[in-house]
Amino acid sequence: MGRAMEYLLQPRHTLTLWERRPAPGNPPVVLESAAAQQDVILFCLPANPHFDLATRLRAHRRRDGLCVSIAKGLDDQGRTAARALAQALGPEAPIAVLYGPMISEEIRAGRPAFAQAGAARAETFARLRDLFAGTALYLEHSTDIEGISWSAVLKNVYAILFGVADELGLGDNMRGYLATAAMHELERIVAGLGGAAGAAHRLAGLGDLITTATSKGSRHHELGRLLVRGETGALEGEGVHALKMVRAHRLFDSRHYALFDLIGQLLDKPATARDLMKNFLERLA
């Protein structure tokens, strides 16, 4: 997604790109020095390093420097990207998140993309709107940072199940059932984690679930297919890690959510995927 953001912003803004391992020929950038000069710092990397990097930046960034994340995962402490940034930078630091249907390849092909911009203050959203003005990324403001963060994180877990169902040849009817059942669970979980009512039914949740669960290029849909095929060495992604963190930190009791629990069983015992799905359907009868 970093390259997609670069594609959107490069024609209209002066960018400084920091990479942990610069590509050959690219001069290294000193993170702290670069941050001190930026109006906006865009975190286009997984959730796990957010806290450490933001901690490094805290004493160097401009007081009004806006930190924005597009990470749809949890770090090893079970924190969303927004929470990691807030804890590292302090309560007064302006932070925001962008979540929704934003397939990188489509953005770089000039196609439209859509995101909820999670920001506590209207002026923060106004800065984001100005940042992406004139691009094909359309923003919708939400002050419910917790709700859209958890919607974005957990929809990746559910998307895996769509790949499982498709690889097993369970058909379009099954996909329709999974969509409604997944949203029912997602709504309850997000509310339990502090999200506002209806948060899961907006772009960060339902919108991105539809995209992630049905797109041919979706990593999480492909993970479900790989699981059924027994290619377990490749079972890595934000959704897999998020499920592990939910368990490790007991963020909620997955036994109360049948689909979420099923996905955990599938990842634990991928060789029994067909039987697990069969048993699940039999229990619905």
Automatic annotation (TrEMBL):
Enzyme class of the recorded protein, top EC level: oxidoreductase
Pfam families on file: NAD_Gly3P_dh_C, NAD_Gly3P_dh_N
Keywords from the UniProt entry: Lipid biosynthesis, Lipid metabolism, NAD, Oxidoreductase, Phospholipid biosynthesis, Phospholipid metabolism
One GO location term (cellular component): cytosol
Single annotated GO MF: NAD binding
UniProt cross-references to SUPFAM superfamilies, sorted A to Z: 6-phosphogluconate dehydrogenase C-terminal domain-like, NAD(P)-binding Rossmann-fold domains
Source superkingdom: Bacteria
Keyword Oxidoreductase applies: yes
PANTHER family (alphabetical): GLYCEROL-3-PHOSPHATE DEHYDROGENASE, GLYCEROL-3-PHOSPHATE DEHYDROGENASE [NAD(+)] 2, CHLOROPLASTIC
UniProt similarity note: Belongs to the NAD-dependent glycerol-3-phosphate dehydrogenase family.
The protein's name in its UniProt record: Glycerol-3-phosphate dehydrogenase
Organism: Candidatus Muproteobacteria bacterium RIFCSPLOWO2_01_FULL_60_18
